[in-house]
């Protein structure tokens, strides 16, 4: 840890009461760069999604057959046979084969269109929220080869509108010991920071020096979620529960009127929408972004390595 960054000393505060005060919600969001919501989703719907995701692992033999499915206990003999390249593929904590099957789940993509999420982001943005179709599932298998996601800002990877926000929702109970998400409170106000190459999801680590911000974190229960601005520095905590799988979703939203980068409309992974859509029954979830009139911003690779941003 950078000695200039203080250890976590802030606990999450529930932002749910702010939903009734839009102006205050936006003020706090701009100040902190994130908002935490306690029991935002019904526990039952989270556990249904958890069962679907764990079912994919079960089909591949990656769960312990002697444990209840919802416990998410990995089959370590098989997991330990996976190469570091397989376990760290695309930063999602599992193999490409498993992730392909997850990306084909209609229910997984439908979750991004949850009415409560769209309404909440509508309040935050003060206009209609557009959900990016490039939904991400983190299926973090328990493996010593798995690299922990380093501190980073999402904007470097997604670009488009800086006012893009991510919803990080654990699919099950995720205490800090299982590797939840930690956020550098207020770091969104520091602008785009310099980076260095690093292992873990994204392959880049934000350089943190003399910022004076504090890490905020907490123990998540099924139904909790945290949302954060694209410039908010965040990281994953290490999984210290041997054998346990950690599941979470990354879902991104932006004001519908703002520009977007083309890749945000592609699947997450080397997949094609037509192939992922096979067997889907909800036509409203397919290519819904084609009904929008976006201004597209090109991806700028150069901003990743701005030397004057490095202290």
From TrEMBL:
<dbReference type="GO" id="GO:0016706">
    <property type="term" value="F:2-oxoglutarate-dependent dioxygenase activity"/>
</dbReference>
<keyword id="KW-0223">Dioxygenase</keyword>
<protein>
    <submittedName>
        <fullName>Phytanoyl-CoA dioxygenase family protein</fullName>
    </submittedName>
</protein>
<keyword id="KW-0560">Oxidoreductase</keyword>
<dbReference type="Pfam" id="PF05721">
    <property type="entry name" value="PhyH"/>
</dbReference>
<dbReference type="InterPro" id="IPR008775">
    <property type="entry name" value="Phytyl_CoA_dOase-like"/>
</dbReference>
């Amino acid at each position: 840890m950078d000695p200039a960054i203080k250890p976590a000393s802030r606990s999450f505060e529930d932002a749910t009461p702010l939903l009734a005060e839009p102006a205050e919600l936006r003020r706090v969001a701009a100040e902190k760069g994130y908002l935490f919501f306690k029991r935002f989703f019904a526990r039952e719907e989270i556990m249904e999604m958890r069962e679907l995701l764990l079912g994919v692992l079960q089909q591949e033999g990656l769960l312990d057959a002697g444990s209840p499915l919802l416990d998410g206990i990995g089959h370590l003999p098989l997991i330990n046979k996976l190469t570091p390249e397989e376990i760290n593929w695309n930063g999602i904590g599992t193999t490409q084969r498993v992730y392909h099957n997850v990306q084909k789940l209609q229910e997984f993509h439908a979750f991004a269109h949850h009415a409560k999420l769209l309404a909440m982001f509508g309040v935050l943005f003060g206009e209609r929220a557009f959900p990016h179709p490039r939904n991400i599932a983190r299926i973090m298998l328990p493996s010593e080869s798995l690299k922990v996601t380093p501190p980073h800002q999402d904007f470097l990877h997604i670009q488009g509108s800086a006012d893009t926000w991510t919803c990080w929702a654990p699919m099950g109970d995720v205490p800090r010991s299982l590797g939840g998400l930690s956020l550098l409170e207020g770091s969104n106000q520091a602008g785009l920071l310099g980076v260095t190459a690093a292992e873990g999801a994204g392959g880049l680590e934000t350089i943190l020096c003399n910022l004076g911000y504090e890490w905020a974190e907490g123990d998540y229960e099924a139904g909790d979620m945290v949302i954060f601005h694209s410039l908010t520095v965040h990281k994953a905590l290490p999984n210290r529960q041997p054998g346990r799988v950690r599941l979470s979703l990354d879902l991104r939203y932006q004001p519908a009127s703002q520009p977007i980068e083309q890749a945000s409309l592609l699947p997450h992974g080397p997949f094609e929408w037509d192939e992922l859509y096979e067997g889907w029954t909800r036509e409203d979830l397919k290519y819904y972004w084609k009904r929008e009139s976006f201004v597209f911003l090109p991806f700028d690779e150069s901003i990743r390595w701005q030397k004057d941003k490095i202290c």
